[in-house]
Backbone:
């Protein structure tokens, strides 16, 4: 099949054409096996083709494909809302469904504006919230995502994210600076009474896999409570067990007013959601937002119901926490051996390894070389970060200890090859 038929706008890490997936593995037509530590960018948390999800999809497809939510209510729509209520905080008791993370993020902003009667939005430096118009305006992780699309929707203001390694400061200094800058922003650019929401990823995704410190999230909660601003936590990439808890904000005990969900919710089928307290959701006027497919496509709804059941029944968040510790320990040992790894950070099975040179500057070249060397051994890893110098570890959450150790072995050999090559080039 010719790639020339596909739009050039899609970059391709590989040209591998998988015909089958199972657990953490993808297989091509020849039967060649690839270890997929990308999870389709955090989508296949339950692994590729989990039997329970597959069965739910097959059974639903044979009964009903679609029922538009403004016209009818499919049973799976109501069942999914009930399932989500069992895994979200009791305060989150009303849900809206749509198709993608970007759509859910935009929906959360529309909800915040309706609920507060305000217009402006505060986002974090290094954020990624999607590629549609409003979401692009809230995305600051790379210029590529906004390049030549501006002007974008206005009313979006950016505050520093507490990324200590980037600033070369300790955490206390970084926190003090970022908190001061947030308060300064509310005095200098967007007044509290015109600010509808503060959006944050509890771990920066495309921005570099940087966890937000608990103290910072607590300060955001305090500011939002003080001024009546909606705290929106974007769990698109961090949700559904990825960080060792069902949702990442549970590490801090900071409750969002509005939460955004996608990726891992459908195990590969397109579905996303927004959750909020009912008193907030009730301020969203009927007909002021909607969509053809969100809440109406019965097959993704069925996949999401089955996904939640798998996550709970198989204790998948707990596995992510346990195996994530093993991965973190292994990467820290490699950091001690290879100085090109400047920092290892993350939560659960959402870990970033940042590559820097001898002067502490971002080292994209070595990062890409290591990624390529891993791919030569059929280990698929993604990069991220503003400078593309971070390898992100985001395997399916069903990964086991032996598979982690095998991946670490491949990563070690890739480091040996790439660092040696870099020295030879010098």
Residues:
């Amino acid at each position: 099949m010719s790639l020339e038929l596909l739009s050039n706008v899609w970059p391709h890490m590989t040209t591998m054409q998988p015909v089958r997936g199972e657990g953490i593995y993808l297989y091509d037509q020849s039967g060649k096996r690839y270890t997929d530590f990308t999870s389709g960018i955090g989508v296949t948390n339950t692994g590729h083709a989990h039997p329970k999800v597959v069965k739910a999809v097959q059974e639903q497809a044979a009964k009903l494909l679609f029922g538009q939510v403004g016209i009818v209510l499919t049973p799976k729509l109501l069942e999914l809302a009930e399932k989500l209520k069992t895994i979200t905080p009791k305060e989150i008791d009303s849900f809206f469904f749509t198709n993608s993370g970007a759509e859910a993020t935009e929906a959360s902003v529309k909800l915040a504006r309706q609920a507060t009667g305000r217009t402006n939005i505060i986002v974090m430096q290094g954020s990624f919230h999607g590629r549609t118009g409003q979401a692009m305006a809230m995305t600051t992780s790379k210029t590529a995502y906004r390049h030549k699309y501006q002007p974008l929707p206005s009313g979006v203001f950016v505050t520093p994210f507490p990324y200590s390694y980037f600033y070369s400061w300790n955490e206390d200094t970084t926190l003090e600076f970022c908190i001061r800058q947030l308060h300064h922003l509310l005095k200098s650019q967007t007044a509290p009474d015109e600010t509808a929401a503060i959006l944050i990823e509890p771990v920066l995704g495309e921005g570099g896999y940087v966890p937000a410190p608990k103290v910072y999230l607590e300060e955001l909660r305090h500011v939002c409570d003080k001024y009546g601003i909606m705290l929106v936590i974007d769990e698109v990439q961090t949700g559904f067990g990825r960080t060792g808890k069902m949702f990442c904000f549970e590490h801090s005990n900071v409750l969002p007013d509005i939460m955004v969900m996608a990726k891992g919710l459908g195990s590969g089928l397109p579905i996303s959601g927004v959750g909020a307290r009912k008193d907030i959701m009730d301020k969203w006027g009927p007909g002021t937002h909607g969509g053809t497919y969100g809440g109406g496509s019965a097959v993704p709804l069925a996949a999401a119901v089955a996904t939640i059941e798998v996550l709970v029944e198989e204790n998948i968040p707990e596995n992510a926490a346990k195996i994530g510790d093993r991965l973190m320990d292994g990467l820290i040992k490699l950091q001690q051996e290879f100085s090109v790894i400047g920092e290892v950070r993350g939560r659960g099975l959402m870990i970033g390894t940042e590559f820097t040179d001898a002067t502490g500057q971002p080292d994209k070249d070595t990062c890409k070389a290591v990624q390529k060397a891993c791919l030569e051994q059929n280990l698929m890893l993604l990069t991220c970060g503003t400078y593309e110098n971070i390898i992100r570890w985001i395997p399916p959450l069903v990964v086991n200890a032996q598979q982690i150790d095998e991946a670490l072995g491949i990563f070690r050999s890739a480091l040996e090859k790439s660092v040696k090559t870099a020295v030879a080039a010098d």
